[in-house]
Amino acid sequence: MSKKIDWMRKDLLGLEDLSKEEIDLILETAESFREVSERAVKKVPALRGKTVVNLFFEPSTRTRTSFELAAKRLSADVLNIAIQTSSVSKGETFKDTAKNIEAMKIDIIIMRHAASGAPHMLARSVKASVINAGDGSHEHPTQGLLDIFTMKQKKGKIKGLNVVIVGDITHSRVARSNIWGLVKLGAEVTVCGPKTLIPIDIEKLGIKISYSLKESIKTADVVNVLRIQHERQQGGLFPSIREYVNRFGINMEMLEEARKDLVIMHPGPINRGVELTPEVSDGPHSVILDQVTNGIAVRMAVLYLIAQRREKA
Amino acid sequence: MSKKIDWMRKDLLGLEDLSKEEIDLILETAESFREVSERAVKKVPALRGKTVVNLFFEPSTRTRTSFELAAKRLSADVLNIAIQTSSVSKGETFKDTAKNIEAMKIDIIIMRHAASGAPHMLARSVKASVINAGDGSHEHPTQGLLDIFTMKQKKGKIKGLNVVIVGDITHSRVARSNIWGLVKLGAEVTVCGPKTLIPIDIEKLGIKISYSLKESIKTADVVNVLRIQHERQQGGLFPSIREYVNRFGINMEMLEEARKDLVIMHPGPINRGVELTPEVSDGPHSVILDQVTNGIAVRMAVLYLIAQRREKA
Amino acid sequence: MSKKIDWMRKDLLGLEDLSKEEIDLILETAESFREVSERAVKKVPALRGKTVVNLFFEPSTRTRTSFELAAKRLSADVLNIAIQTSSVSKGETFKDTAKNIEAMKIDIIIMRHAASGAPHMLARSVKASVINAGDGSHEHPTQGLLDIFTMKQKKGKIKGLNVVIVGDITHSRVARSNIWGLVKLGAEVTVCGPKTLIPIDIEKLGIKISYSLKESIKTADVVNVLRIQHERQQGGLFPSIREYVNRFGINMEMLEEARKDLVIMHPGPINRGVELTPEVSDGPHSVILDQVTNGIAVRMAVLYLIAQRREKA
Sign of the C-alpha dihedral, residues B179, B180, B181, B185? Predict the structure, then answer.
């Protein structure tokens, strides 16, 4: 068990900024929230009278829903603001939107935006706490945390774990948050994908590169499979889907060479038959639904720690 | 009063499946919830800490609103997921959506879908309870229940009641749920409409067919008027609106031949001047707004019985 | 302090109808709610078990959000109905929508509509209370109230205050509500804008007209700057944006001639560089964010007074 520390940050913007101790604190707090969603009465009063806003500039059902449930199970008041109905469409600048939300005495803003760094800009200009729910291809810290939480739950530890992240590494905020968190906690991380979709310098983060999933899967404890963004295919960097599936899709045959206790993860939603065959995504190696369940516990933990810190500040 | 039974079903998918006793139990429970919405404090703690999701694959204001209010007045946490923002648009399969919602530890999913049988499929694949809020032209059980509740409220009984259902019987889930429920409770049901819009075999359900509303209305205790779906007119089965109004629209003149205590119902929203003239829809025979009020009580009852059963299971 | 009166109205439709005493009562009640949003637990139980519906026939983020927060901080159950998902799109008449909402035992309907007088029509046909959240170019009473509340907060009084309202007076519901309220409370009001955008007879309301902001700003205590509706420019009444900015936009240079303690207001969202330069909107004269904060207190006060009155009625 890690040395007990207090959460001191106003915001959660990315795992790059966090220390090993801070990540451990979130994971331990999430552990204690996990059973709340199993109760008959799935509600604790921790955030009663706090206002949490979901400010989503990109459409999302699952992340928005997960945060909304986490906040409601903590008894917060939750407000959803989606880009479509936002006054951004009236030409208001991003900063004005932020300042206005601030003026409404919001405690925590959960923000998703297509531009990398947008939540950081928001965090600097408001007293409210900001949680990054995905910014461009930069970070998606609560996804990284729930992935790590799930690995720890299934494998009992992170240190020394052989984790392969497979897919379009260049454009993936999920990959980036996983890498930052896993490396800090001592995992051995390999990124795997077509050459055109792996950033040149990425080894500097303390990870390995592989261009063959067939090879990497043999020694993996965990394979975290990224979602293929079909809209990215236009750019020419992406091989044909057929070629991609052949080399980086996971089917039962490929699993024959893998460890019996290999854990397969995916942030969802799955493109069935692309990243994973249905037999694999519904099979015994898959922990995809545990990730969804753990997502709520991790988000409750983050909301709770941030709200606690605000109380003291 | 019916023999007291316990509610044993995980889901409410249609009135076809229910026994007379189960329908009676819902109606009696609804009776006791009716006064909650009349109180100054319209709230009871029965579903505190439960999570209810409105999962609507077809747009709806009134059914969604009625369920949302019912759930909130029972103190549940309510989440709205509409198709527009759902990850279905990202290519995720229906089943994956279901499994993901399940993983978020939802207690009750209220689902509307354009495909008949979709809620049944959902119910089989999740541990959460599923309430069918309308599936294709199959069933809309809570509408059927609120219609029956309103008939009983106005007429004191269902057994022996002469109920005429008029309109596009073939494509109406409201008609189907009414028929299943009313026949089980002993009403005399007649369906009435253009020949092209009445299924050939429908008499086998234990009901009569009429092609003349002018005739049927003379002996009716209740006329339940279906909504004309203008979008259906393309198919060629539907007569011109003018012809339809002439034969199946209800105006004051037609009411002269009806019983003085005839009750006129409509699930809403009304096409004014089509199914009913304004004088009729706002007149003394109409109980359309009572249906809306009773809808909340019936939905509270269904949510309550299902939640109670989950507690014990 | 004003003579204490009780709130007796079912609805809040406009400031034209209110007496000075009624406006004072709202402002004083808002004063006591202002600190609720500053607390760690931003919630009072005043409206527990009440149902409040946001019925918005025009898109709006900030007004809808402000009302939603106000209602939630009073512990009401809040339902959002936007035109896009409303059954109005199914051809239902406005009145039927209203009657249906009524039948759901809603306590308070907050309504925005493009047609002047729509909330008044609604108020006449339902027992629920109606709050006008903006009707056409007629009134936006809670905006008027929060503007007046903010002026009083900054200047200590309204009586004798020199208030200039600048912009498209003809089409502004914000202007109209400000004028009605300010005149009743004894302010000296001047409207200022291009000749084509000021109604001919408006002096009859007891206010002055100016066509030169450069002149009017010299003696102003408050300038309330209206938002330019770009969509209005088509009509030919509106000068070019460039010409408008030259004559009615506020920049630092123009402020040199103004009083040192001039207060600048704007209902938002600002067209930066049009009505105000960024230096002005973020500068020391601007109280725009205070308006947003005060908006919640004022709306809590209105909801509270109306709910209290319903209790007694």
Answer: positive
